[in-house]
């Protein structure tokens, strides 16, 4: 007996139609990856140098015996304070700039005036396209040894990124409430305040916490170019290859990142599920008061003085640098080399992102903290994976580049892998969070009908996680382009190496040209990744 | 009821996932910020100090080429010794980046800097009025050593030509002993200093060069003789690294004094007094001996601009001085 | 059965035989869903024991546990389909209990066993939507996809948690008939939590009423009137 569930029986049987655009993008991505791997010499010769395992082993072994003498730890503690102060003030500036910038670049503001929107986005690409370390080097030349160097070097590029992300978050809020308020006669500002900001608040806050963690890591990179703090200690220890001390710095940095992460997570949890009952929630009150106190303390600790921003000396140095940097160098040799080096940079970033995305997908399940009770083995495993991811992103890319160069032959690959493992640390965390936010029920339903864990993961987790992972990976691709500046020198090449050479030679006109090339490349990558993301949606 | 009224009366507030913050707590927060920020104006920063304003101390700095504690200890000791001898406040400022040290000298954040040969030239050309003060006895006859991985089978020789087909790394890009002079001597020997297979690497430091050559990732490299000797004496050089060639001598590190310090500190002939101080350091005096030992020097001797003409010329050839 | 401090089920003693079609009725929060979750092994009882198809569904782990669970098919209240997958994969997910992992993975790239899937979808009237993304379907269509998943799973025990909540009355009738057939064709059993007295009386042989986690009614459907059931749907005091 066969019951058929429908009124008119429709004999039409669907045929499998593949989405042509998606397939075109997927094939294109595979081709670009193969091209990049070929460019890295993976198919044409040796890339591994087994002779360097001893040197790499020394780096790895030192992880277990970090320098713990009292003098060095004291030095680390005071350096960590400087790093925290930079990160806090940099983030505060970035959030302030981001909030203002978001208004200027959101679709909500521009409505149907597409040209204005595109232009405002284009303007943001300039501060965003330059790495914090590059901003640091430029600002040192204008402001000298002033704490503003570190604050602005973090605040300006982060502000531009934050503006873009804030604008996207607000633009993605469903319009219902907002339109209803406008229809009821509310002004545009108050409609935004009541109809758009509250639904976006969770995302805005979570992103702010993420930025703070990034700022701690950036403050370390800035220390490496002379802004003091943990990065200064790290780069001194790194220059003399004292791996025990390098690891102590890395652990100190990991602790700071962890603190920022844990605090952000606690606040996010509270926002998602506020405790019942009246009265003020201590966690949320703390989330407002502690950052304010931290900003005040940082301002005091670094003795920041707004006067130095507008002093005569600053104006004089700014004029000096701008005078030397304009007009940009246009000699044929330089322009000719830009193209070839841009290719290296793109290949390096593609390999880095492929490595990071693959690793993130494989590790995300283990790193995520699903709700509910977990077996002890699963809990320990999750903690180990999360710690490894934390350390991967706490070791600065230049350090990765050197230690990977011990076991790989010079070329694009060591730099690409250095960026890859570093990005894996960042992407793995973002992916784990995306997995945590997935609906756990489909997977539980599959387990209930007897699916094995692999099957349940393939059908219940992967389809939902693939979207966010790819979106994050595409977003980090743009970041990886900028980060190639950090690993370029060690024989890895690319625009980063050229930029470092021109900065070392104080050829400001050429620096302008290379920076312009990097900004254009960042913008192109941004456009491509934006198209790719819209195809995935 | 208008939307605004509705909002004020709390009808819309329930949409917000954020709990309401009372005006009092916000005001209190702002007060705390102000209260904490105000005293900051009188505080000296752990990372810097505004270069404007009162005379302040003589600010000395150095490009980093030593271990962190050594560096901290080294310049703390020098600052104390110099302060006592000159009757001036002397303060050591840490800098980690070659380029940053040059820029900070130009901006006047650093008055007296221990530069390498090339960075000294860069700083002097960017800072009109800067003058070299003193160098160590060993800086007059500084050398670099080319090292190779033992697997290359190369034996010590005066001929640099066999290095040409090897993967080769310099140290830091603007290092005199790790980049500039070796590149010059390579060219003298008929080897293109940028023409190594895959392009030369820049390890970033003398120690990194040693390790990279030991690993075999780079088959050859070049570093400062002083570091080579000191690492060899410590026994920390991997046996797979062997010395290939030592370069002819050239001038390297020196103290460079900025043009604005004398006027700002109100000290006539600051340069002269510094020369007297440095050249007067004697190995016989225990305090002086400590300074000399930290610098790895027997004594300090005067120096002059002409000593670095060759470096400037080579720097221009390599596009490192503009 | 307790969740934290809340007791969801207490003192339930219920035996369902092969071939029976049992309706679970009761107000929201009465414990219907929990009883079904106990039966498919999704939750473990804090006290007492559960035996399904001659085994304890929560105690058996590994391969034996999977084999047992593959014989139990569940239509979940919230459907638990993966929105970003095509319909064909969501239906095929019913076979994950018997497919090796490699086949499961390959099927995501090249759908396997398509004729069976299409046949199942034909029975729920969705044959033309086989390759659509599931999230593009309406609530009622998704409910039918969940039933199609069961059709390819071929379970011996069918557990259904409000399987017709998003369907119009005519479709709801057919859906229940389909589930009943599915169980009966294989000599199996249907246990369904239902809200509509009409559906209960037309498609089930036996009615079990729950209130506050206890069994308050257990009678053959024949002889019950809709009015007898109305009390049970009232919210508990």
- Uncertain stretches of 5 or more adjacent residues of chain B: 1-42, 49-53
Quote the CATH topology of the largest domain in chain B.
Answer: D-Maltodextrin-Binding Protein, domain 2
Global outline of chain C: globular
Count of separate DSSP helical elements of chain B: 12
* CATH-level-4 superfamily name of the largest domain in chain C: P-loop containing nucleotide triphosphate hydrolases
Overall tally of structural domains of chain C: 2
Provide the helix percentage of chain C. 25-40%
Largest sheet of chain B: 6 strands, mixed
Task: Give an account of the 3D structure.
The complex is a heterotrimer of chains A (537), B (322) and C (237). By secondary structure, chain A is an all-alpha fold. Helices cover 78% and strands 0% of the residues of chain A. Chain A has a domain at 334-537: MetI-like fold (Orthogonal Bundle). Chain A contains 22 helices and no strands. In chain A, helix 9 (188-227) runs parallel beside helix 10 and helix 9 (188-227) runs antiparallel to helix 11. Chain B folds into two domains: 58-140 and 252-317, Periplasmic binding protein-like II (D-Maltodextrin-Binding Protein, domain 2), CATH 3.40.190; 143-246, 3-Layer(aba) Sandwich (D-Maltodextrin-Binding Protein, domain 2). In chain B, 40% of the residues lie in helices and 15% in strands. In chain B, helix 3 (68-86) packs antiparallel against helix 11 (286-294) and helix 4 runs parallel beside helix 5 (117-126). Chain C is of the alpha/beta class. Chain C has two domains: 1-71 and 157-237, P-loop containing nucleotide triphosphate hydrolases (Rossmann fold, 3-Layer(aba) Sandwich), CATH 3.40.50; 79-154, no CATH class. Chain C has helices at 32-40, 62-70, 87-92, 101-109, 114-123, 139-153, 169-185, 197-203, 226-233, and strands spanning 2-3, 6-7, 21-25, 72-75, 157-161, 189-193, 206-211, 214-220. In chain C, a hairpin with a 2-residue loop joins strand 1 and strand 2. In chain C, helix 5 (114-123) packs across helix 6 (139-153). Chains in contact: A-B, A-C. Chain A: Residues 80-268, 342-529 form the ABC transmembrane type-1 domain.
């Amino acid at each position: 007996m066969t019951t058929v569930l429908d009124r008119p029986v429709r004999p039409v049987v669907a045929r499998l139609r593949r989405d042509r655009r998606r397939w075109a993008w997927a094939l294109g991505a595979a081709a670009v990856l193969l091209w990049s791997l070929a460019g890295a010499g993976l198919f044409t010769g040796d890339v591994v140098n087994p002779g360097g395992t001893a040197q790499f082993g020394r780096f790895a072994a030192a992880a277990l015996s970090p320098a713990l003498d009292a003098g060095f730890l004291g030095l680390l503690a005071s350096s960590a304070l400087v790093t925290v102060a930079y990160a806090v003030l940099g983030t505060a500036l970035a959030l302030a700039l981001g909030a203002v910038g978001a208004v200027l670049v959101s679709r909500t503001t521009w409505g149907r005036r597409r040209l204005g929107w595109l232009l405002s986005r284009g303007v943001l690409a300039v501060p965003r396209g330059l790495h914090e370390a590059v901003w640091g080097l430029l600002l040192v030349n204008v402001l000298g040894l002033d704490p503003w160097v570190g604050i602005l070097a973090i605040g300006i590029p982060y502000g531009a990124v934050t503006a873009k992300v804030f604008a996207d978050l607000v633009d993605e809020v469903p319009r219902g409430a907002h339109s209803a308020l406008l229809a009821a006669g509310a002004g545009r500002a108050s409609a935004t305040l009541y109809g758009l900001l509250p639904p976006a608040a969770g995302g805005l806050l979570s992103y702010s916490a993420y930025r703070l963690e990034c700022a701690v890591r950036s403050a370390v990179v800035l220390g490496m170019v002379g802004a003091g703090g943990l990065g200064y200690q790290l780069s001194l220890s790194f220059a003399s290859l004292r791996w025990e001390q390098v690891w102590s710095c890395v652990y100190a940095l990991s602790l700071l990142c962890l603190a920022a992460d844990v605090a952000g997570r606690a606040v996010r949890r509270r926002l998602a599920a506020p405790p019942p009952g009246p009265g003020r929630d201590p966690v949320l009150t703390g989330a407002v008061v502690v950052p304010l106190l931290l900003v005040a303390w940082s301002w005091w600790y670094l003795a920041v003085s707004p006067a130095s921003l507008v002093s005569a000396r600053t104006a004089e140095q700014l004029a000096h640098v701008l005078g030397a940097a304009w007009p940009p160098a246009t000699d044929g040799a330089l322009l000719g080399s830009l193209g070839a080096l841009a290719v290296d940079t793109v290949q390096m970033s593609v390999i880095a992102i492929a490595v990071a995305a693959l690793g993130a997908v494989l590790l995300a399940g283990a790193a995520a903290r699903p709700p509910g009770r977990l077996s002890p083995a699963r809990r320990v495993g999750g903690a180990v994976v999360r710690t490894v991811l934390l350390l991967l992103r706490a070791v600065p890319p230049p350090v990765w580049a050197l230690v990977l160069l011990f076991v790989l032959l010079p070329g694009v690959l060591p730099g690409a892998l250095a960026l890859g493992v570093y990005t894996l640390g960042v992407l793995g965390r973002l992916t784990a969070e995306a997995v945590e936010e997935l609906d756990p029920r489909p997977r539980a339903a599959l387990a209930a009908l007897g699916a094995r864990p692999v099957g349940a993961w393939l059908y219940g987790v992967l389809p939902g996680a693939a979207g966010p992972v790819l979106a994050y990976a595409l977003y980090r691709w743009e970041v990886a382009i900028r980060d190639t500046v950090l690993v370029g020198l060690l024989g890895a090449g690319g625009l980063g190496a050229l930029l470092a050479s021109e900065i070392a030679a104080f050829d400001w006109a050429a620096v302008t040209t290379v920076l312009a090339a990097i900004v254009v490349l960042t913008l192109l990558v941004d456009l491509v990744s934006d198209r790719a993301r819209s195809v995935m949606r | 009821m208008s939307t605004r009224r509705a909002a004020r009366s709390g009808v819309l507030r329930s949409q917000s996932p954020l709990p309401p913050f009372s005006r009092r707590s916000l005001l209190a927060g702002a007060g705390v910020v102000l209260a904490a920020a105000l005293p900051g104006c009188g505080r000296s920063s752990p990372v810097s100090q505004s270069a404007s304003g009162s005379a302040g101390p003589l600010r000395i700095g150095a490009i980093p080429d030593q271990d962190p504690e050594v560096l901290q200890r080294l310049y703390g000791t020098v600052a104390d010794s110099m302060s006592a001898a000159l009757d001036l406040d002397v303060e050591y400022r840490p800098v980690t980046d070659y380029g940053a040290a040059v820029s900070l000298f130009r901006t006047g954040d650093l008055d007296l800097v221990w530069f390498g040969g090339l960075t000294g030239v860069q700083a002097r050309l960017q800072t009109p009025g800067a003058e070299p003060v003193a160098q160590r006895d060993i800086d007059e006859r500084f050398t670099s050593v080319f090292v190779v991985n033992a697997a290359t089978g190369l034996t010590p020789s005066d001929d640099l030509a066999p290095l040409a087909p090897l993967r080769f790394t310099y140290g830091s890009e603007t290092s005199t002993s790790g980049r500039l002079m070796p590149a010059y001597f390579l060219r003298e020997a008929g080897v293109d200093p940028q023409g190594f297979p895959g392009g030369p690497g820049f390890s970033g430091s003398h120690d990194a060069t040693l390790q990279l050559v030991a690993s075999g990732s780079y088959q050859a490299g070049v570093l400062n003789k002083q570091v080579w000797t000191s690492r060899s004496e410590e026994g920390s050089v991997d046996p797979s690294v062997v010395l290939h060639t030592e370069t002819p001598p050239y001038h390297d590190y020196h103290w460079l004094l900025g043009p604005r310090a004398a006027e700002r500190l109100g000290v006539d002939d600051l340069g002269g007094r510094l020369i007297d101080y440095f050249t007067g350091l004697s190995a016989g005096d225990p305090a002086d001996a400590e300074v000399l030992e930290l610098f790895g020097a027997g004594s300090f001797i005067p120096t002059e601009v002409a000593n670095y003409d060759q470096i400037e010329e080579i720097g221009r050839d390599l596009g490192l001085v503009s | 059965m307790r969740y934290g401090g809340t007791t969801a089920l207490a003192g339930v003693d219920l035996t369902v035989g092969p071939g029976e079609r049992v309706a679970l009725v009761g107000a929201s929060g009465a414990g219907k869903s929990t009883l079904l979750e106990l039966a498919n092994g999704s939750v473990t009882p804090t006290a007492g024991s559960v035996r399904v198809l001659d085994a304890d569904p929560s105690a058996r782990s590994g391969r034996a546990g999977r084999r047992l669970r593959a014989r139990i098919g569940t239509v979940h209240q919230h459907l638990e389909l993966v929105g970003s997958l095509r319909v064909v994969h969501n239906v095929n997910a019913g076979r994950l209990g018997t497919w090796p992992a490699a086949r499961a993975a390959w099927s995501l790239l090249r759908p396997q066993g398509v004729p069976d899937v299409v046949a199942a979808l034909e029975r729920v009237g969705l044959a033309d939507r086989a390759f659509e993304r599931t999230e593009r379907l309406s609530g009622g269509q998704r409910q039918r996809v969940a039933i199609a998943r069961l059709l390819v799973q071929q379970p011996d025990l069918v557990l259904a948690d409000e399987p017709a909540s998003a369907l119009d009355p005519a479709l709801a009738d057919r859906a229940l008939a389909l589930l009943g057939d599915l169980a009966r064709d294989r000599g199996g059993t249907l246990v369904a939590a239902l809200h509509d007295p009409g559906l209960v009386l037309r498609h089930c042989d036996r009615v079990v009423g729950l209130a506050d986690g206890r069994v308050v009614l257990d009678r053959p459907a024949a002889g019950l009137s809709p009015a007898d059931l109305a009390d049970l749907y009232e919210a508990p005091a």
